[in-house]
């Protein structure tokens, strides 16, 4: 019988286990796949394992999270001492409420030689005014890179739990000059506390203050979240001392900052986000482009002109931050901007039309407009000059009218169009009526069919269309959009005022059989009938289908739904919202198993290779069908 670490049994048998019964490299491989809890348990087996586990589990312990639940183990357990060291590169210290425990944790990490940390996240940070010197001393030691060869950027993230901590930012960065990425957030309770006490009136010319001589030359990434003007006045000198900033995320009031001066302060700036949570458009293009720029993963190896590439901000009219302030910055970087996200959190009164008419954004890839005001002509002027534009997303709040014919004909390279809560029309103008391509299209066609045939004949790249709660969508629109041979994804959320019928939607689905459609979301089908289910099953390339209805539950024919899933050769995901299902009998034996997922259990039993999850909302269901 093998005794524990403190037993008297000879350890030669344990060594034979490693060296005889299993090849040594296999043992090392096994250890490298243990998680942290299992490493700690294995070290209790015997002396040999106690010595060997830490030596070959460096990769397992390169990332740790210290919190009140495991704090006592860190302080009192010798196994932790053996497992930690300068191989620990990613540390999160989280959820401590007791100040002394917080400092004990930092002290123990220093004692265990966890220095040279590349990513340190502290939330919340208990650095009070009376002990910040101790905090800085421990912080310097944890981030020290003395004697270490590393090419990784150091990142420091602090969520502060005490008020009036902005002045310490300068001291932290001076104490840790090697930090290249720094994030600082004041917690919500502190924001409210400072808002209540802050009656400070500050000089609006702070943006012109002289730049301090001591510069933070390594800082390239700064993420600051504040809420008061008083904090902003302290932040400005920090910005002025960071000439090598490339990425700036800023949350808070902007009344003291003239953003056009950023080009002088940060000549290397490529990424600027200001209160981006108020731009409500969530689009995969935005996040893909965001990650590509942040990670510097450009597929295009051609040299790029230096300048801002990503800009996202809402207008804050009550703070004097609107088109007149943002427009000059966009014009400064018109030759380099690839993404622009503009929003208006409250009802906007200032129009962007003059700014749009004066911009030539030759590198622009994606444009998101959330609740801002502009007119149809100014938007066409902008996208006509944006010859690289691939994604246009507009959240209209029912204030925006778009002439879809004029818009899409002026931007044939556009691949993705998102339009929410607006109005559509399809009127031609004289210049477009004289286009020679029009002679190839019968004049008797409806404006909608004329548009989509024109786009297809002229090489339009439009493959992804999302129209949600947009007035102007009818049966003719749904029938004729199928002329787009490039269409891969169609997302239609019909508003209550739309005049689409189930017959019109059925005809649309039938005509989509001649396309390579992969994603089809139609929210507005009243009855998912057997013919409609069969038409969906015949879409050879369709991978995902979503449907639902508004006030009354959508009626779904259960047997037809089962046949649709079984017949389709490509469907992997189906989501049906706010529905009732007919023709499906739920077995009495299932009623005692899981009341909320009764329908899901029944359908899963009948669908081989699929899993069905259902939620019962007092008479109607949401169901999700996924291929195993």
UniProtKB/TrEMBL annotation:
SUPFAM superfamilies linked: F-box domain, RNI-like
Q: Which Pfam families match?
A: F-box-like (PF12937)
From the broadest rank down, the organism's phylogenetic lineage runs:
Eukaryota, Fungi, Fungi incertae sedis, Mucoromycota, Mucoromycotina
Q: Which CDD domains match?
A: F-box_SF
Q: Which domain of life is it from?
A: Eukaryota
Protein name (record): F-box domain-containing protein
What residues does the F-box domain cover? 16-64
PROSITE patterns cross-referenced by the UniProt entry: FBOX
């Amino acid at each position: 019988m093998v005794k524990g670490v403190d037993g008297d049994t000879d350890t030669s048998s344990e060594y034979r286990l490693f060296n005889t019964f299993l090849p040594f490299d296999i043992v090392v491989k096994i250890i490298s796949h243990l998680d942290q809890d299992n490493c700690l348990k294995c070290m209790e087996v015997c002396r040999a394992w106690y010595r060997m586990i830490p030596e070959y589990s460096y990769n397992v312990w390169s990332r740790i999270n210290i919190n009140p639940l495991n704090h006592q183990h860190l302080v009192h357990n010798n196994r932790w001492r053996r497992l930690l060291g300068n191989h620990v590169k990613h540390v999160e210290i989280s959820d401590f409420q007791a100040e002394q425990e917080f400092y004990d944790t930092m002290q123990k990490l220093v004692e265990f030689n966890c220095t040279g940390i590349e990513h340190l996240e502290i939330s919340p940070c208990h650095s009070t005014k009376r002990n910040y010197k101790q905090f800085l001393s421990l912080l310097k030691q944890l981030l020290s890179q003395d004697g270490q060869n590393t090419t990784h950027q150091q990142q420091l993230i602090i969520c502060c739990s005490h008020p009036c901590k902005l002045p310490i930012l300068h001291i932290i960065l001076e104490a840790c000059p090697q930090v290249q990425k720094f994030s600082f957030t004041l917690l919500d309770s502190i924001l409210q506390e400072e808002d209540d006490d802050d009656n400070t009136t500050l000089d609006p010319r702070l943006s012109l203050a002289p730049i301090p001589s001591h510069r933070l030359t390594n800082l390239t990434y700064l993420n600051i979240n504040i809420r008061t003007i008083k904090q902003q006045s302290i932040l400005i000198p920090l910005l002025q001392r960071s000439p090598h900033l490339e990425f700036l995320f800023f949350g808070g009031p902007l009344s003291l900052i003239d953003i056009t001066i950023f080009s002088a302060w940060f000549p290397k700036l490529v990424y600027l986000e200001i209160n981006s949570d108020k731009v409500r458009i969530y689009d995969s293009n935005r996040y893909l482009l965001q990650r590509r720029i942040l990670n510097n993963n450009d597929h295009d190896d051609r040299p790029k002109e230096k300048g801002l590439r990503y800009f996202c901000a809402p207008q804050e009219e009550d703070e004097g931050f609107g088109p007149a302030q943002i427009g000059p910055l966009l014009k400064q970087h018109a030759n380099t901007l690839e993404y622009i996200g503009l929003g208006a959190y409250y009802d906007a009164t200032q129009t962007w039309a003059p700014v749009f008419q004066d911009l030539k954004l030759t590198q622009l890839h994606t444009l998101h407009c959330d609740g801002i005001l502009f007119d149809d002509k100014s938007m066409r002027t902008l996208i006509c000059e944006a010859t690289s534009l691939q994604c246009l997303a507009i959240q209209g709040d029912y204030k925006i009218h778009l002439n879809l014919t004029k818009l899409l004909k002026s931007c044939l390279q556009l691949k993705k169009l998102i339009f929410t809560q607006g109005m559509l029309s399809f009127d031609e103008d004289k210049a477009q009526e004289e286009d020679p391509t029009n002679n190839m299209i019968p004049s008797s066609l409806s404006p909608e069919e004329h548009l989509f045939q024109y786009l297809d004949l002229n090489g339009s790249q439009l493959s992804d269309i999302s129209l949600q709660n947009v007035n102007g969508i009818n049966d003719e629109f749904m029938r004729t959009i199928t002329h787009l041979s490039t269409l891969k994804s169609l997302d239609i959320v019909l508003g209550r005022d739309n005049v689409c019928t189930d017959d019109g939607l059925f005809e649309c689905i039938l005509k989509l059989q001649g396309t390579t459609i992969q994603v089809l979301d139609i929210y507005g089908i009243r009855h998912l009938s057997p013919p409609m289910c069969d038409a969906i099953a015949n879409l050879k390339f369709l991978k995902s289908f979503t449907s639902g209805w508004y006030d009354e539950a959508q009626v779904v024919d259960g047997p037809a739904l089962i046949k649709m899933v079984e017949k389709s050769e490509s469907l992997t995901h189906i989501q049906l919202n706010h529905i009732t299902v007919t023709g499906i009998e739920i077995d009495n034996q299932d009623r005692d198993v899981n009341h909320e997922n009764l329908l899901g259990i029944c359908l899963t039993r009948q669908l081989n290779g699929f899993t069905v999850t259902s939620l019962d909302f007092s008479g109607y269901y949401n169901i999700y069908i996924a291929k195993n």
